[in-house]
Design goal:
Helix content: 10-25%
CATH superfamily of the largest domain: Probable tRNA modification gtpase trme, domain 1
Number of helices: 7
Radius of gyration: 20 Å
Number of domains: 2
Largest sheet: 6 strands, mixed
């Protein structure tokens, strides 16, 4: 997709809060195909793959046998298999883990990131995307022979879309047809949008750190407790039915001039070394320089306001409401 990469590299990197279009090459894709693709994913991912078709995508995750998450995906059913959308930086290590479980299955795994030109749109007017290209609502997919459009979770009055094209020419033409009514922005705009929407991401620095429930994946519909076994299923089920969740993901604004990185530690005041209180999941600045952060921490400490960043002890953390209802 050299033509697409050259095109998107010339676009604005400015940040926008609403009504924008931006390239999202930071989202990677894994292609899973073959006669046993459905059974393979059913035995590996946290959600019930049998519940989706080509008109509806699914949020899901992949964990170690000890229940520690290695990745979070949006899963799309396509004509020849499945596309797993995740952060590009973990595509290669995820493929290495998944390869171990193919054994005798008729399954092919591939990094499909370079097969698609992809960009995101956030808008208060879905008609900006075009009536013939707009899926029916959040969680839905529209597909043609060369284009896939996902409508994601809304953010207030703004509707959010991911668009993927097999043809760079088609992607560029479609982009240019939308850019007249939208602000052209950089990836940070979409990054911030995903954080505000409360969508967890696993990066190399946080792979193997969190159990599924900690990331609020249950509230987001990213797990099935009725399907069969998958790596980490016993740990997830035990926490769901026998345990009490002591850590979960929070959304916060942090007073800081330095953006926290995934995996950065949160501690109780006065601590100079990590004390197991919590870790940063993701963070991004907005147009006004405010830091918006998803973090996972001990619930009691987070709700009492007794946390700070280990590397930034003067930082103030103010929790804000997530845009979805948590399971208690």
């Amino acid at each position: 997709m050299k033509q697409w990469q050259e095109f998107e590299s010339k676009q604005s990197s400015a940040q926008a809060a609403n009504d924008f279009i931006c390239a999202v090459d930071e989202i990677g894709l894994i292609m899973v195909s073959g006669a046993d693709a459905t059974d393979f994913l059913q035995n590996q991912l946290s959600n019930d793959i049998n519940l989706i078709d080509e008109s509806r995508y699914q949020l899901s995750s992949y964990s170690t046998p000890k229940g520690r998450m290695l990745g979070v995906f949006r899963v799309i059913r396509v004509s020849n298999g499945y596309l797993l959308l995740t952060t590009a930086s973990i595509v290669v290590p995820l493929l290495e883990h998944l390869y171990k479980y193919i054994v005798q299955s008729q399954v092919t795994l591939a990094d499909a990131s370079n097969y698609f030109a992809r960009f995101a749109v956030q808008t208060g007017n879905p008609e900006n995307v075009g009536k013939t290209s707009t899926p029916g609502g959040p969680g839905t997919v529209m597909q043609t022979e060369s284009m896939i459009t996902l409508q994601l979770e809304p953010l207030g009055s703004q509707r959010r879309f991911l668009l993927m094209f097999l043809s760079a020419d088609e992607a560029i033409d479609f982009w240019e047809s939308l850019a007249g009514s939208l602000q052209v922005a950089g990836y940070s705009s979409w990054h911030l949008s995903e954080i505000k929407a409360g969508i967890p991401v696993i990066y190399p620095a946080t792979a193997g750190e969190f159990v599924l429930q900690m990331t609020n994946l249950g509230a987001l519909g990213g797990v099935s407790f009725d399907k069969g076994c998958y790596p980490g299923q016993e740990i997830v089920a035990r926490m769901q039915y026998l345990g009490k969740l002591k850590r979960r993901m929070f959304l916060a604004r942090i007073e800081t001039d330095t953006l926290p990185a995934p995996g950065d530690d949160l501690v109780t005041p006065g601590k100079t070394v990590a004390d197991g209180s919590g870790k940063v999941v993701d963070a991004e600045f907005d147009l006004d320089g405010n830091c918006h952060c998803l973090y996972i921490a001990q619930i009691s400490k987070a709700e009492s306001g007794s946390l700070q960043l280990l590397k930034q002890p003067g930082s103030r953390i103010d929790n804000v409401d997530l845009p979805y209802v948590l399971e208690i």
